[in-house]
Design goal:
Elements: E1 15-19, E2 22-25, E3 30-33, H1 36-39, H2 48-60, H3 71-84, E4 88-92, H4 95-112, E5 119-123, H5 132-137, H6 141-144, E6 154-157, H7 162-171, E7 175-180, E8 183-184, E9 190-191, H8 194-206, E10 210-214, E11 238-241, E12 252-256, H9 277-292, H10 295-314, E13 320-326, E14 329-334, H11 342-349, E15 352-353, E16 355-357, E17 361-364, H12 372-393
Bound molecules: pyridoxal-5'-phosphate.
Amino acid sequence: MQPIMNTYGRLPVTFTKGKGAHVFDTDGKAYLDALSGIAVCGLGHGHPAVTQAIREQADNLVHTSNLYGIGQQQTLAEKLTAISGMDNVFFSNSGAEANEAAIKIARKYGHNKGITSPTILVVENAFHGRTMATLTATANPAAQEGFGPLLEGFTRVAYNDLNAAQQAVKENSNIIAVLVEPVQGEGGVTAATDEYMNGLRALCDANDMLLMLDEIQTGNGRTGKYFAFQYFDWCPDVLTTAKGLGNGVPIGACLAKGKAAEVLQPGSHGSTYGGNPLACSAANAVIDTITNENLCERVLELGDRIRNKIDAQLKDTGLVTEYRGKGLMIGVVLNTQENAAGIMKSALEAGLLLNVTAGNVVRLLPPFILTDEEADEIAVKVCDQITAFFAAQK
Ligand SMILES: Cc1ncc(COP(=O)(O)O)c(C=O)c1O
């Protein structure tokens, strides 16, 4: 029996080193990383500022406890609230845990209003994590299969369908919050429309509900703004993030604003590791680097460059039906009903890391520190892989 539990179908490779946009396997073979550990290493591998922060903090103090003041956590909370306009932050170790905090805030908010069965509105194709509450919020029957009973207190409507959300709220006075991704990642790299996002904000305002955005994947520069909600002129009530925040050091955050920021009180939530000095030092270095080096602008430039180059090469082939996403969250939708997951393996053999989601969407989440040449190389290799995939179907 394998000593690691069988929860992942892994590709046949092990990496031992990373530098910039490349990782190297046990034989020293280099791979261009267009996945960033699934939207985690936005600053690439071995970024000097992050490495130095981790090294210095490890030398000083790795962990104490949330029973005491933690200077690095205080600094990080100040940076995150300043960037986002939110009021306060709860720190966790992962995305799912950040969403757990959001779900608890929503439920408590409902109970405080005298609603004994508070319900959260979630959407089709959502991914929010794999703990029991976030698995319930996730819209993937295969992921939920065999883990029932799921939690009460969630109701689901179609994504990007404002009428459906409005109707659900009209029919169910227990709905106290909406939880949604501004760009769905695992669900197929689908961006919410402006009308939908603005409509959800108005719906929540009109019904005293919390608008909770899952920016675990879209946050920390990935879409070309520090947070994707910053494409709009309002704030959510609750915002979760993780992935890119620590550039690989596990950390998550649940930010709240206004009435939502006052819901949790001492004793109502907690985490042993959440926001410890090591993780917060790494995240402080990440935020400083993204902001000081204007990486959000670079994300937009690189995103356009990769998309345009792929499109220029494939536009007359009919192999691609659509490009989705924002910034460096790129979904290339293939013109096939066949499962294209095999492209992950063939790309690996060609020295490129990418992902395929929702069956036929080639998903690119490359780091923000790509050179123009590396961006072009990703585009060329992706086109080669897509062309080879369709040639093999014939
Ligand atoms: C939008 C979104 N929410 C939540 C999660 C769960 O995060 P984690 O795997 O860190 O628990 C993910 C992970 O892919 C995600 O993309």
